[in-house]
Amino acid sequence: MPAGRAGIDYLSARPAFTMAPLVMHVQATFNNTLITITNTKGDAIASSSGGNAGFKKAQRAGYEPAYQAARIALAKVEDKQGESAKMHGVHVKFKGFGPGRDAAWKAVLALGWKVAKVEDVTPIAHGGCRPRKARRL
Fold first, then answer.
1. Are the C-beta atoms of residues 99 and 28 closer than 8 Å to each other?
2. Distance between CA 47 and CA 42 in Å, rounded?
3. What are 111-130's pLDDT values in tens digits?
4. Contact at 8 Å (CB) between 126 and 101?
5. Cβ–Cβ under 8 Å, residues 68 and 32
6. DSSP class of residue 13?
7. Which residues contact 63 (CB under 8 A, 6 or more apart)?
8. How far is C-alpha 28 from the chain's CA centre?
9. How far apart are the first and last CA of the chain?
10. pLDDT of 90-107, one tens digit each?
11. 32-62 pLDDT, tens per residue?
12. An example Gene Ontology cellular component term from the record (predicted)?
């Protein structure tokens, strides 16, 4: 065995999920953060956004509205499914590069949810459309 790994079983350290975890979709734009929690089939269970958290217009674009939106969405799931929802865990999917990415992640950890998987599903253009012709002055 390599040094520093003697006597540690890394496979048993992973959380055992008996049921499929919920999926938390976090769409973080620069103007708002949209959070939707679904089951593995894609059926929406709860959703929230910076506007639902009570922030309006330009105020939705910050860290705090995203944190509150994540907290509200996770609380809705707990109300619907009870405390056992926390034990099933959550698979977090981030989309976009707004300030809400970090805020939603901190909310999941602060509320004590088990995290099954973290994934970045931000679309990346490869190739794309032909650019406009060069402007001549």
1. yes
2. 13
3. 999 999 999 999 998 888 89
4. no
5. no
6. T
7. 99, 100, 102, 103
8. 9
9. 68
10. 999 999 999 999 999 999
11. 999 999 999 999 999 999 999 999 999 999 9
12. ribosome
Give the predicted TM-score (pTM) of the model. Answer: 0.79
Q: Does domain 22-120 have CATH number 3.30.420.80?
A: yes
Residue 10: which pLDDT band, with cuts at 50, 70 and 90?
A: very low
The tokens of 130 are what? 């032909």
Two tokens, residue 61: 């674009």
Signed CA dihedral, 82, 16, 37, 96: sign only: positive
For residue 7, the number of C-alpha atoms closer than 13 Å in the C-beta half-sphere is 1
Asked if 61 contacts 30 with a C-beta cutoff of 8 angstroms, the reply is yes
The token pair at 135 is 């402007």
Q: Which residue matches tokens 């939106």?
A: 69
Q: Which residues of 67-100 are buried (b: 16+ CB within 10 A; e: fewer)?
A: bbbbbbbbeebeeeeeeebbebbbbbbbbbebbb
Backbone angles phi, psi at 66, to 5 degrees: -70, -40
Q: What pLDDT is attached to residue 13?
A: 56
Look at residues 48, 11, 12 and name the one whose alpha carbon lies nearest to residue 32: 48
Q: Is the pLDDT of residue 108 over 90?
A: yes
